[in-house]
Amino acid sequence: MNSQSPVALVTGSGRGIGRAIALKLFEKGAAVVINDVGDAGPAEEVAGYIREKGGQSSVLLADVSKENEVTGLFESIISSYGRIDILVNNAGITRDQLLLRLSEEDWDRVLDINLKGAFLCTRAALRYMVKQRRGRIVNICSVVGQTGNAGQANYAAAKGGLIALTKTCAKEVATRGITVNAIAPGFIDTEMTRRLNDNIKQEVLKQIPAGQFGTTQDVAGAVAFFVSDDASYITGQVLRVDGGLVMA
Ligand code: NAP
Predict the structure, then answer these.
(1) Ligand 1 pocket mutation pick from 13, 15, 89 by most atoms within 8 angstroms of CB
(2) CA distance 208 to 188
């Protein structure tokens, strides 16, 4: 490994926003670990692309909601790269339903991946970052974690919790050279939002001052800023990337 390259883990980076973040961090000079759960194909494609372009990248499959898999994930990173400098907690799912019809199973699964997964990865990363006295953690939240959203009680609660986790963690590790920030995307064009029906999409579009959904690149650019030296005095913040959807 090039000892000058920071080492980054982006969870859920085989596709969507995570993929764009992984490619952006590679462009910025990082060695990037691609994580996904299930099918390794898309993750291998991202890592292969980075290696073809002369970068360093590998795939580590793990379910971020399972403590033993997260422990194994970080042990593999440290054994291969010797360090971890950047953690982007991006892995997330939705299981939308009105609260009265929301099952316990769908509540638990969304909280487990979106919130507990970020906790497990953050705790594992901090064990190394604290010793290094350097680190960057970026949590991919959502504007609905700040505003709430009908039909997304589980998801909004998870993302709101993730914002609270971001601020708490930022306070705990600020003296150790580690920053912890959150990005709250609005509506970004990915498989997650392509599942919405056309009526909902049209209604949402009317509320976005920019008049369009964001791209995965818009979120990746914000991550690149938070992990850069330009952002070393910024911690515990939530940056909305939403075309002006929420202003407060
Ligand atoms: P996506 O296209 O559905 O991709 C989600 C990624 O997370 C996939 O690579 C998926 O892997 C991975 N993943 C799911 N469960 C996982 C687990 N247990 N362990 C590890 N990886 C797991 O979603 P996206 O739109 O890119 O969303 C990325 C993040 O942005 C999420 O946290 C989401 O909540 C947030 N966000 C998205 C939007 C939006 O408009 N798209 C808005 C606000 C916030 P597999 O392919 O193996 O399933």
Answers:
(1) 15
(2) 12
What is the atom index within ligand 1 of the atom nearest the CA of 63?
Answer: 19
| pLDDT tens-digit map of 104-155 | 999 999 999 999 999 999 999 999 999 999 999 999 999 999 999 999 999 9
* Ligand 1 pocket, Cβ-based, cut-off 6 angstroms: 11-12, 14-18, 35-39, 63-65, 90-93, 113, 117, 140, 142, 185, 187-188, 190-193
Q: Does domain 7-187+215-241 have CATH number 3.40.50.720?
A: yes
For 3-48, write each residue's pLDDT tens digit: 579 999 999 999 999 999 999 999 999 999 999 999 999 999 999 9
Contact assessment for residue 223 and residue 138, using Cβ atoms and an 8 Å cutoff: yes
| Whether 155 is catalytic | yes
**93 CA distance to ligand 1 middle (Å):** 5
Q: How do the domains of the chain map onto residue ranges? A: 7-187+215-241
Q: Quick check: 33 and 8 in contact, CB under 8 A? A: yes
C-alpha to C-alpha distance for 71 and 56, rounded to whole angstroms: 22
Q: Give the integer Cα–Cα distance in Å for 177 and 134.
A: 5
Angle between helices 117-132 and 153-173 (to 10 degrees): 10
